[in-house]
Write a structure and sequence with these properties.
- The chain has 482 residues and is of the alpha+beta class.
- The chain has three domains: 285 residues, no CATH class; 115 residues, no CATH class; 58 residues, Arc Repressor Mutant, subunit A (Orthogonal Bundle).
- It is built from 16 helices and 17 strands.
- The strands form four sheets. Strands 1, 2, 6, 7, 8, 11, 12, 13, 14 and 15 form a ten-stranded mixed sheet that branches. Strands 5-4-16 form a three-stranded antiparallel sheet, with no helix packed on it.
- Strand 13, helix 4 and strand 14 form a beta-alpha-beta unit.
- The longest helix is centred in the middle third of the chain and has 20 residues.
- The radius of gyration is 30 Å and the shape is elongated.
- It binds adenosine-5'-diphosphate and magnesium ion.
- Adenosine-5'-diphosphate binds next to strand 1, strand 11 and strand 12.
Length: 482
């Protein structure tokens, strides 16, 4: 048994997600990303004397929405606490957070792991405000501070230590981000920092029930990096243990350039945050009516939509999963099936040629250059046999993208690609070919089935390439096997 196989990996994730509100958690400052530094900072964000925070209702609504989607218990009596610490990017000297009383308790996220469906247990989701940003690489002598982000509303989503592979952590974060985006709770944009993850990692001998000492790797800014870090730490912790070296409970950081982690501080220097209830904010109560109202306003969740596509639209499990991987993909699918009831064909087109175009151009489906109606028309030209799939998804699609001011039929006709799919017309060519090639027909009937290609090639030639070859093949077989 290799050393790694002796141990079980144990991971708990803490995800910070920036709530998609227009203004900050306790004041009207704008939250949009990318503005000039320190232009979205009012005296309230800085907690100047005499200023008072006021809770943004929208932030509460979004947190509750998320809690409902993730099957959490929603706390009725809520209040905030001050977490006191000094850091240059924390202008107030404290962060307002829900310390002991999270707005959402428990909950689960369902993932489709390699070894089956798993419910990843959540510990809690709580609301808190973000700090500002320290910028260390813009100036050679000084660290710079941008306080635009200070006071932005976050939810922190905390799992129980129940994840046992880097792959499952990856799936969990992917699923969570999908839900966040689906509900417009958070844009899930990890590069811009609106979703960040801390990974808590420990190991124990397989079969052990007690948890080992953990390391916490902070501020991971991509799902792939979380996966990498878990693999790195698993191997590092196993190596330490196997060498009889002790594991220190510490906070680490990830160096993407070297794909390695390094220690930031050990937990022994952990600060005492002197939490106390925030005196400037009254407690707030969430009623069952409020929860019911939000529930009834929520869209069907990704899994529900996926099941509908399988059961009602006949999509395969795989196709339904891919179509439902993103909200914009589902919206696109829904808009095309308004004009075409051929659900499977729409899914095939989406996963094939349309996706290809998106990837080539670095765009999502929401930016697809053709209207849903035009796409649906193109698909039905193919389904009805008037246009081969190859021509439709190649030349005609391209022609439409170049000039979307024509119908699918016009584009195909202009390229001379409309094919003959009228069976009686095709039958005339087929019968003629059979009459003209009596020897070959005899050989075919005595077992040389490969000759079918010769016949269909002949039909194609005589139709000047216009025949719907799928239909020709079908008719030829029927005719020859009579
Ligand atoms: P803190 O707030 O100090 O980081 P918490 O107890 O709230 O501590 O835990 C934070 C995260 O660490 C949770 O996701 C939890 O599941 C995870 N965690 C706690 N102990 C361990 C452990 N021994 N191994 C792996 N993850 C752990
Ligand atoms: Mg932590």
């Amino acid at each position: 048994m290799s050393n790694l196989e002796k141990y079980q990996l144990v991971v708990g994730l803490e995800v910070h997600a920036q709530l998609s509100t227009k203004s900050k958690l306790f004041c009207a400052d704008d939250t949009s990303f990318g503005s000039a530094p320190n232009t979205q900072v009012s005296p309230i964000s800085l907690a100047h004397p005499g200023t008072l925070p006021k809770l943004n209702q929208k932030a509460v609504e979004l947190a509750v929405k998320l809690g409902i989607a993730l099957h959490c218990e929603i706390e009725s009596y809520n209040y905030f606490a001050r977490k006191n610490y000094f850091y240059p990017d924390l202008p107030k000297g404290y962060q307002i957070s829900q310390h002991t009383a999270p707005i959402c308790k428990g909950g689960t996220v369902l993932i489709e792991s390699q070894d089956g469906l798993k419910n990843i247990q959540l510990n809690r989701i709580h609301i808190e405000e973000d700090a500002g940003k320290s910028i260390h690489d813009a100036d050679s002598e000084y660290s710079l501070i941008d306080l635009n982000r200070a006071g932005t509303p976050l939810v922190e989503i905390v799992t129980e230590p129940v994840i046992h592979s880097a792959e499952d952590a990856f799936l969990f974060l992917t699923e969570l981000r999908k839900t966040l985006r689906w509900l417009d709770v958070c844009d899930g944009n990890m590069e811009e920092g609106s979703m960040r993850c801390d990974a808590n990692i420990s190991i124990r001998l397989k079969g052990d029930l007690t948890l080992g000492k953990r390391v916490e790797v902070k501020n991971l800014n991509s799902i792939r990096n979380v996966k990498r870090v878990i693999d790195i730490e698993f191997e590092r912790l196993v190596a330490l243990t196997e060498n009889n070296e002790s594991i220190t409970q510490e906070t680490r950081s990830y160096d993407a350039d070297n794909n390695s982690t390094f220690s930031l501080r050990t937990k022994e220097d952990a600060e005492d945050y002197r939490y106390f209830p925030e005196p400037d904010l009254p407690p707030f109560v969430i009623t069952q009516t409020y929860i019911d109202d939000i529930t009834s306003s929520m869209p069907a969740l990704p899994n529900q939509v996926k099941n509908k596509y399988i059961k009602e639209y006949g999509l395969s499990d795989y196709d339904a999963s891919v179509v439902c991987s993103d909200k914009e993909d589902v919206l696109f699918f829904e808009s095309v099936i308004k004009y075409s009831q051929d659900f499977k064909a729409v899914a095939n087109w989406m996963l094939g040629p349309l996706k290809y175009h998106c990837n080539e151009n670095g765009i999502g489906f929401s930016a697809f250059p053709l209207s849903s109606k035009l796409i649906a028309d193109l698909i039905s030209l193919t389904s009805s046999g008037k246009l081969s799939f190859n021509n439709a998804s190649g030349k005609v699609l391209q022609a439409l993208i170049t000039n979307p001011n024509q119908s699918a039929n016009e584009a195909a006709s202009a390229l001379n690609l409309i094919q003959e799919s009228d069976s009686s017309e095709l039958m005339k060519w087929i019968e003629q070919v059979i009459i003209d090639m009596p020897e070959k027909v005899k050989e075919y009937k005595s077992g040389k089935k490969g000759l079918i290609g010769l016949f269909s090639g002949e039909v194609k030639k005589r139709s000047k390439g216009k025949a719907d070859m799928q239909l020709v093949n079908q008719l030829l077989q029927e005719k020859l096997n009579q």
